[in-house]
């Protein structure tokens, strides 16, 4: 029975990944280590409370005592590190915590795994550390071209710089100690359980409240959208079939401008929920500092080597996503209580 240490599993992608894995395999154990920051929410996992293959541990990946204790207590086979400060706008306001969690936290996890898995020379067979990274480490594209795994790292925001730094530490553990690792770099995810600081759930939530829809700059920045379940499938393949030391880009050629995303959401909610939701709610606001213009992934390596392909077309994924938020209004209310209003006011007024 393989044991997975999933970090940041109470966040958006981590919780989707835990659901995906426990649904697919009934012979694995998942330990979820999460600090429960503003972005972590146990509501995302409440259906697993009775599942004996799932254990939640509240704690910080920067706390080496907690992390080492988990390696003592469990025979961990895979570490999948999702834990991070993940929002670019927050990183512009407050970079320090991004360095702490994203860089230092990664090194603490690497060290703990190395101590548990290595006798000083060789690593036990069947163990692997997977770093969940981002295409933002490559920087920004012009009108043409795609990010490949060998595209030079050129991050711009404090967030992407912290993720690139973490990637370099993971690479250093492979190059120096031959630690078994993989790094995955995906494009923008969307789907259930995403905190409404990110574009898609923020726009859905604001449409439902008939509040202004903030669009940065000219609205023509491009992101390459990946349905979160397709991402989870890719991570599972990398864990099980990825060649040691390799980086895999994950994305499905779903490039859209931000304004297209916003208008798509408005149109669906206008037709299905409330005809008062119209494009009049759009408000062009000051651009993000250092705003990357375009991201676009070349996924040919993961397609050819591991046989992964994205199953969800953007037009279907966005409908499933909006429907999920419509049916889970309680979830939205719960995550937007507390400090969310304060954050929103500071960010958007
Ligand atoms: P998220 O912000 O929704 O969740 C992050 C989780 O990490 C939360 O549960 C939070 O409580 C936890 N966490 C934060 N600091 C911690 C710490 N010090 N110790 C333990 N837990 C801590 O993030 P997400 O969108 O699910 O992203 C997951 C990973 O995927 C991140 O590493 C992110 O960089 C990467 N990623 C995300 C996207 C995206 O579109 N969301 C795209 C590319 C890469
Ligand atoms: P976001 O969801 O924050 O992801 P990332 O910055 O990591 O790509 O933003 C996606 C795009 O949407 C990005 O170009 C910024 C833009 N955006 C807005 O126009 N308005 C908003 O309120 C937000 C949160 C983002």
TrEMBL record:
Residue ranges annotated for the NAD(P)-binding domain, each copy included: 5-320
Cofactor needs: NAD(+)
InterPro entries: dTDP_Gluc_deHydtase, NAD(P)-bd_dom, NAD(P)-bd_dom_sf
Alphabetized UniProt keyword annotations: Lyase, NAD
A GO molecular-function annotation: dTDP-glucose 4,6-dehydratase activity
Gene3D superfamilies: NAD(P)-binding Rossmann-like Domain, UDP-galactose 4-epimerase, domain 1
EC top class, as a word: lyase
Segments crossing the lipid bilayer: none
Reaction(s) catalysed by this chain's protein: dTDP-alpha-D-glucose = dTDP-4-dehydro-6-deoxy-alpha-D-glucose + H2O
PANTHER family named among the record's database cross-references: DTDP-D-GLUCOSE 4,6-DEHYDRATASE-RELATED
Name of the protein in question: dTDP-glucose 4,6-dehydratase
Organism: Clostridium fermenticellae
């Amino acid at each position: 029975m393989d044991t997975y240490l999933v970090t940041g599993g109470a966040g958006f992608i981590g919780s989707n990944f835990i659901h995906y894995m426990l649904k697919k395999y009934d012979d694995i154990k998942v330990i979820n280590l999460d600090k429960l920051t503003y972005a972590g929410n146990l509501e995302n996992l409440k259906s697993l409370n009775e599942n004996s293959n799932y254990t939640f541990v509240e704690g910080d990946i920067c706390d080496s005592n907690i992390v080492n204790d988990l390696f003592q207590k469990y025979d961990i086979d895979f570490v999948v590190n999702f834990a991070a400060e993940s929002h670019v706008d927050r990183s512009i306001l407050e970079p320090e915590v991004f360095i702490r969690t994203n860089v230092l936290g990664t090194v603490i996890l690497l060290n703990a795994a190395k101590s548990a898995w290595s006798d000083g020379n060789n690593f036990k067979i069947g163990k692997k550390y997977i770093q969940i990274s981002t295409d933002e480490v490559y920087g920004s594209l012009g009108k043409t071209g795609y990010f490949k795994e060998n595209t030079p790292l050129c991050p711009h925001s404090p967030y992407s710089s912290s993720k690139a730094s973490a990637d370099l530490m993971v690479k250093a553990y492979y190059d120096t100690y031959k630690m078994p690792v993989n790094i995955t770099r995906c494009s923008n995810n969307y789907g259930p359980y995403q905190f409404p600081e990110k574009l898609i759930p923020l726009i859905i939530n604001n449409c439902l409240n008939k509040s202004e829809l903030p669009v940065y700059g000219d609205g023509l920045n491009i992101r390459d959208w990946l349905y979160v379940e397709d991402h989870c499938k890719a991570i599972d393949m990398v864990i099980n079939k990825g060649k040691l030391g390799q980086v895999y880009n994950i994305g499905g050629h779903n490039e859209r401008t931000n304004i297209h995303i916003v208008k798509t959401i408005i149109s669906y909610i206008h037709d299905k929920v409330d005809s008062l939701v119209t494009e009049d709610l759009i408000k062009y606001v000051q651009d993000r500092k250092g705003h990357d213009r375009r991201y676009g992934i070349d996924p040919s390596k993961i397609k050819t080597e591991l046989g992964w392909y994205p199953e969800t077309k953007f037009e279907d994924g966005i409908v499933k996503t909006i429907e999920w938020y419509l049916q889970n209004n309680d979830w939205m209310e719960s995550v937007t209580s507390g400090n969310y209003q304060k954050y929103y006011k500071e960010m958007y007024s």
